[in-house]
Amino acid sequence: MPSLPIADPSDVSRPSSTADGREHLLNWTSEQLGAWLSEQGHKPFRGRQIWNWIFQKRATDFDSMTDLPAALRTALDSQFVIFRGSIAKEEISPDGTEKLLVRLADGGEIECVLLMDGIRRSICVSSQVGCAMGCVFCASGLDGVDRNLTHGEILEQMLRLQARLPDDERLSHIVMMGMGEPLANLDRVLPALDWARSQDGLGISPRRITISTVGLPPAIDRLAKQGVPYNLAVSLHAPTDELRTQLVPVNRKIGVRPVMDAADRYFESSGRRLTFEYVLLGGINDSVRCAEQLSRLMRGRPVLLNVIPYNPVAGLPYKTPTSKQTRIFRETLEKAGVNVHFRQRKGSEINAACGQLRRNRQTESA
Ligand code: SF4
């Protein structure tokens, strides 16, 4: 595995069993479960039934798995839990956006979001507790990173959000854009996404799965080598090294050019159009000059530029850009022929910027 360009203090292994010694089943592979079933004297096909209950029938306990022998259900219950965390807080916005604060077994808290948009049922999922990237405008990175999530903890967010939907609705899109840098935890993100796209799992096409990153070139190259056509969204936020290093400090060790080169390589190998994310901060990166520099960076690339007017975070000095400046920024990009989309701030009433719900709770309980 190529090494990451930055130290990754979050790469800490944690025991996967709960306080009562039971294992988090979502952390187990099919092979591991199959081996356990054999040891217990059960047929291997029972494994498929169990996963089917969890992913398709949304079972959250073993008792409801009525086509399993009672003895197996009892054995499963004594050995495993399906959900290992608990919901510490939930908020629902008038536009239908639902945001969950999930408390993990070790007390860490992460956020995940369900967004309703027409027929789309999209979820935004976290990959780490906190984040080491330190983007100055982001609530998730304010206290640094605690640890990587396990692949079971990533899957649990997906299943908890799927469970919010009516029985006849399914998740349609996944965005790895919650708390954390997914490419700093690729070893757990990839197995979780294997389940997300598997027909035995959530059955979501990789073309509807987006992995968001600040741009870690070796990890982007590793992702490209998987040969799975996930969408890559690179959080750029600034067109020059000087400004980007101020906003995304990890840029100091990477640089805009290597990020763009790695994104180009990802496009060449996956054929997937690239997305660049640009959080528009009032008075900081919303000038005409920035729009012109950004246009030059996007030129000749098969990209979609997503511009997201900033969601204010309590305690941080950054502002939403004025509607006039937003319009001028947009017109400058459009005139230069950039394929640009200004994203609606869905769920802005419920602390929709990542890390805000967790941060607000920490502030409340301080
Ligand atoms: S914006 Fe994303 S990468 Fe940056 S600190 Fe927040 S969670 Fe980390």
TrEMBL record:
<dbReference type="Pfam" id="PF21016">
    <property type="entry name" value="RlmN_N"/>
</dbReference>
<feature type="binding site">
    <location>
        <position position="311"/>
    </location>
    <ligand>
        <name>S-adenosyl-L-methionine</name>
    </ligand>
</feature>
<feature type="binding site">
    <location>
        <begin position="235"/>
        <end position="237"/>
    </location>
    <ligand>
        <name>S-adenosyl-L-methionine</name>
    </ligand>
</feature>
<feature type="domain" description="Radical SAM core">
    <location>
        <begin position="117"/>
        <end position="349"/>
    </location>
</feature>
<dbReference type="GO" id="GO:0019843">
    <property type="term" value="F:rRNA binding"/>
</dbReference>
<dbReference type="InterPro" id="IPR058240">
    <property type="entry name" value="rSAM_sf"/>
</dbReference>
<keyword id="KW-0408">Iron</keyword>
<keyword id="KW-0004">4Fe-4S</keyword>
<keyword id="KW-0949">S-adenosyl-L-methionine</keyword>
<keyword id="KW-0479">Metal-binding</keyword>
<dbReference type="Pfam" id="PF04055">
    <property type="entry name" value="Radical_SAM"/>
</dbReference>
<dbReference type="InterPro" id="IPR007197">
    <property type="entry name" value="rSAM"/>
</dbReference>
<keyword id="KW-1015">Disulfide bond</keyword>
<dbReference type="GO" id="GO:0051539">
    <property type="term" value="F:4 iron, 4 sulfur cluster binding"/>
</dbReference>
<keyword id="KW-0963">Cytoplasm</keyword>
<keyword id="KW-0411">Iron-sulfur</keyword>
<keyword id="KW-0819">tRNA processing</keyword>
<feature type="binding site">
    <location>
        <position position="138"/>
    </location>
    <ligand>
        <name>[4Fe-4S] cluster</name>
    </ligand>
</feature>
<comment type="function">
    <text>Specifically methylates position 2 of adenine 2503 in 23S rRNA and position 2 of adenine 37 in tRNAs.</text>
</comment>
<dbReference type="GO" id="GO:0002935">
    <property type="term" value="F:tRNA (adenine(37)-C2)-methyltransferase activity"/>
</dbReference>
<dbReference type="GO" id="GO:0046872">
    <property type="term" value="F:metal ion binding"/>
</dbReference>
<dbReference type="GO" id="GO:0005737">
    <property type="term" value="C:cytoplasm"/>
</dbReference>
<keyword id="KW-0489">Methyltransferase</keyword>
<dbReference type="InterPro" id="IPR027492">
    <property type="entry name" value="RNA_MTrfase_RlmN"/>
</dbReference>
<dbReference type="GO" id="GO:0070475">
    <property type="term" value="P:rRNA base methylation"/>
</dbReference>
<dbReference type="InterPro" id="IPR004383">
    <property type="entry name" value="rRNA_lsu_MTrfase_RlmN/Cfr"/>
</dbReference>
<dbReference type="InterPro" id="IPR013785">
    <property type="entry name" value="Aldolase_TIM"/>
</dbReference>
<feature type="active site" description="S-methylcysteine intermediate">
    <location>
        <position position="354"/>
    </location>
</feature>
<feature type="binding site">
    <location>
        <position position="135"/>
    </location>
    <ligand>
        <name>[4Fe-4S] cluster</name>
    </ligand>
</feature>
<dbReference type="GO" id="GO:0030488">
    <property type="term" value="P:tRNA methylation"/>
</dbReference>
<feature type="active site" description="Proton acceptor">
    <location>
        <position position="111"/>
    </location>
</feature>
<keyword id="KW-0808">Transferase</keyword>
<feature type="region of interest" description="Disordered">
    <location>
        <begin position="1"/>
        <end position="20"/>
    </location>
</feature>
<comment type="similarity">
    <text>Belongs to the radical SAM superfamily. RlmN family.</text>
</comment>
<feature type="binding site">
    <location>
        <position position="131"/>
    </location>
    <ligand>
        <name>[4Fe-4S] cluster</name>
    </ligand>
</feature>
<feature type="binding site">
    <location>
        <position position="212"/>
    </location>
    <ligand>
        <name>S-adenosyl-L-methionine</name>
    </ligand>
</feature>
<dbReference type="InterPro" id="IPR040072">
    <property type="entry name" value="Methyltransferase_A"/>
</dbReference>
<dbReference type="InterPro" id="IPR048641">
    <property type="entry name" value="RlmN_N"/>
</dbReference>
<dbReference type="GO" id="GO:0070040">
    <property type="term" value="F:rRNA (adenine(2503)-C2-)-methyltransferase activity"/>
</dbReference>
<dbReference type="GO" id="GO:0000049">
    <property type="term" value="F:tRNA binding"/>
</dbReference>
<keyword id="KW-0698">rRNA processing</keyword>
<feature type="binding site">
    <location>
        <begin position="180"/>
        <end position="181"/>
    </location>
    <ligand>
        <name>S-adenosyl-L-methionine</name>
    </ligand>
</feature>
